[in-house]
Amino acid sequence: METTPFFVLLFLHLGGLVLGFGAVLVTDLYGLLWIRDRVRFPQVVRVSSVTEKFIWAGWGVMVATGIPLLLLKGEVDNLMAVKIFFVALIGLNGLLLRALHDKVRGYEQGRDVPAAVLFRLSFSLLVSQIAWWGALLIGFLHRHVQSVIEWPDSPWLLIGLIAAALLALWAGGEVLVRRKRTAAEDLVDEVAP
Ligand code: HEM
Questions:
Q1: Residue 64: partners with Cβ closer than 8 Å, 6 or more residues away
Q2: If we measure between CA atoms, which residue out of 89, 51, 71, 67 comes closest to residue 167?
Q3: What residue segments make up the domains of the chain, in order of their start?
Q4: Is 0.90 topped by the overall pTM?
Q5: Residue 170: exposed, middle, or buried by beta-carbon count in 10 A (0-12, 13-18, 19+)?
Q6: Test site for ligand 1: of 63, 143, 146, 147, most ligand atoms within 8 A of the Cβ
Q7: Per residue in 34-87, pLDDT tens?
Q8: Phi, psi for 79 (deg, rounded to 5)
Q9: For ligand 1, is residue 23 a contact (CB within 6 Å)?
């Protein structure tokens, strides 16, 4: 396992991490600056159109180098199954973020963006952080603590629980946003002549 090809691939793997996760952090930083009123909304959208390409490139490099790394290692333990779930989640979430990005592209002011779209954007960013940090932590544990980790006993149960928790959070948020909108519409109807 600890051969020259393995280390070359590991180096490229970490290069992909710098590229992809670095771009994620830049995007999120701009989002935070917008929330704190330090940058304007169109600037956030412009920056994320560029960082999006870096994120996909980094993710692609991680997958393209991760597969041969795994083949050289020759063992998929339970924790690796959880890592692969996180990697797939990053990809799926990236596709959803892309669709949301296209929706907000036309808005000049952040406050004009519908609350439901803002909620989905924030939720997507949360999912992205959980999945990147999860995959990062598991990669670190495998490399520096123990190379084979047969934990949890059932990776599918943990994966199912994480997926269920995220789905519940998303559904709860959608319901709350919808309720707020209906209350606001009722108020407008009452005030309107
Ligand atoms: C977002 C995606 C990914 C992240 C953030 C990530 C992160 C990491 C990190 C931080 C390391 C340790 C590097 C070191 O300290 O030297 C690592 C190693 C490794 N990664 Fe990934 N990785 C990702 C995707 C993948 C994929 C898709 C695979 C395989 C299909 C994979 C397979 C491996 C293997 C085999 C190692 C060597 C350590 C070991 O598991 O024994 N990685 N990864």
A1: 16
A2: 89
A3: 1-74, 76-193
A4: yes
A5: middle
A6: 143
A7: 988 899 999 999 999 999 999 999 999 999 999 999 999 999 999 999 999 999
A8: -70, -30
A9: no
Distance between Cα 178 and ligand 1 center (Å): 40
Q: Using alpha carbons, select from 92, 12, 100 the residue that is nearest to residue 58.
A: 12
The total number of residues written for the chain in this structure: 193
The Cα–Cα gap between 135 and 87 comes to 7
Degrees to nearest 5, angle at CA 36 with 35 and 39: 80
Residue with tokens 């590229």: 19
How many angstroms does the Cα of residue 13 sit away from the middle of ligand 1?
7
139 CA to middle of ligand 1, Å? 4
CA distance 128 to 52: 12
